[in-house]
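user: can you give me the structure for this one chain? tokens are fine.
assistant: on it. calling the predictor now.
[tool input]
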Amino acid sequence: MAHSTRSQALTDGLISSVTGVGAENARFKHLRSIAARGLRNQPHARTNQFAVHATYEGLIEKFSILNRDDLAEALQSRWDEMPDRPSQTQPEILSLLLLLSDRPVEKTDVTALDKSHTQHHVAPSLTWQEIVEHDPLTDDDLWTDVQRGYHSSGAEEDPSEDHAVSNLSNSIQATDVEDNPEVLARSYLIRLDTESYDISEQYIHDLHKAQAADETVQLSELNMIRETFSMFQGLPSRLYRCSKGNNISIQENLVLTTATASTVIGQLQCCANVGSAIWSLRQWCQMAHGISHTHVRACQADIQDNLNLFDRDLAGLEYGLLELNVDKVVSILHIATNICILARPLQQLYVRVVRPATSSLTGGYTLLDKLYSTACEAQMHEDNPLFFLCAKLLTNATSVYLRSVATWIHSGSLEQINDSFFTEEANSKDWTLGRMWIERFQLKLTSAPSFLQPMVEQIFALGKSQAFLQELNGRSANSGLHDETSYDRAPFTTWARLKSELVDMPLFPFSEQFGQSLSDWLTTNTGQTNKSLRTQLVRQERVLEFPDMLGHVFHSSDGVQFQLFATALFRRLKGQQTGWYDDFFLTEMAQETLGTCKGVHAASISISVQARPDSANMTSFEMIQQISLHYAMPWPLQNITHEESPTVDAQVLCLLLQAYYAKSLLSQPIPDFRQRSSSSERSMTNTSVLKKCYLDILVTQPSCYVEN
């Protein structure tokens, strides 16, 4: 029982140390069952020491066969030193060493074993107590001024030295350096290394000589490496020349003393091509004139940070060449290869993103499109350096680009008017409030990034809704009274968060992950925009009451008022009164009858006659057809119906008036059938009755015909 408990505790510790899963994790029980089953199936409870001894003896014989007698003798000597009575854990230790070995014949250096036994004696460091004991601080000579040439044994004074240094006093009294700050500054200057300066001068002299005489000059590998580093760091170089188009080329009359001309020129030309892209990228990052897009400037700042990291890596390569503790072979081919590997992501960034974006005339959003497409392609090709670079730049630039989009969503105003935004506002003289929804703002689908195309129309509608809502509240969307903190409440995802998601799900496409982040951002920023506009239109503008108003005015929903209006109108038509087509009189008549219905604004009703006909030559039906009733709707309703007055409903009213007039004509006394037995007269009477019934249905229930 105790052995089982001990084994279970060891198994739990093994699982926690190997997998990092604790006992509180749901997977822990499953992993423990697998581990226990595997340990139970082991044929030996401990390591077979005889198999281990046989393996080591086989290694010694194998080393001898592979002509590594030194390694075989070293292993044999140490094997002989093993105690006759091994410890309890010795077989496990020897087996572990066998498992940790990695090609010992190729990688083992026997001389390193001798170095491990040498003892290095480190001299004890000098303490302040020992210094004070040897030279007490109370000694007067300690604080005296040090004379010039004190430590020199009669050496002549160097005339090139600055005599102003001697004016710097080391006495206690000279504590105020403000009396002569130049003296203190000169004391920190480092003297020029004349030997290195002479070598550089000779190199420059030979280089100018070769350029002037068009001769071939042999240069050392060190000078070529130095000039290559200078070129990649954006510094002037005498080995490389830059043309007006930021194209870097090499001086072809220079050769290396230790390699053929074709090899050196080919490698340097490769460096020049990469350096041209890096140099153009540096120039573009410093370009501020003519760039009004904030997301482009943010991208420039991020690329400049990556260029600074690239310069730091170059400095690390240079520092590696200056280490004196390690013997290294300095090669221009090796250095150029390493630099090109470091610069490859930046080179591809310029070739595939920056250069096409700067030469394009489609707007600032082209940079976002190129970053997006390059990031997706790099992920598919498993080019991780380029993918992470483009994905980071795209995330940060999109975060800045979405600030103007968030301002549009929350305030309905355009933060910046440029060709990178997909919304354009018309001139205030080109639109009215009644057609604000369709005429004030125009959507430019071709001016939006490709990854934002699926949600452009939704964003456009949200911004128009907010501008419409502000007009309802009596504010202009361009007054600047929008919520400045709207973007801060729901910012776009950060690169750190997106990168962690990409690392956790490496097979998940970047396009899907980025699109999901955009959808989440839009959902968060949508808020209550549409709901607020809908609520205000229903509660304050009462748009739901508009159909009832149309029924009272145009569809004879109120039969009493419709009959009064129609009777008064027919009376004027039958009487052939002069000026029956007077708009003012007809409008007043309609306002006194139809304008008294519930929910109808009488002042909004007006009647116009399309022509001024001669009533003597026209029938009453033709006169009614010339009458058109208008109802001036509020501008919010005009944006919904896209017309100032219901045109179709006015035609329905004209039809109802004609039907009601026909009904009045058919409402004549029916003749007595007993006195007139003619079949034609009876048929005409029956037809009149049927027409009258049809007209009754048409006049009393016009809504069914209107809906159909």
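assistant: here you go. DSSP finds 30 helices and eight strands in the chain. The beta strands are 217-219, 240-242, 248-250, 254-256, 423-425, 441-443, 605-609, 627-631.
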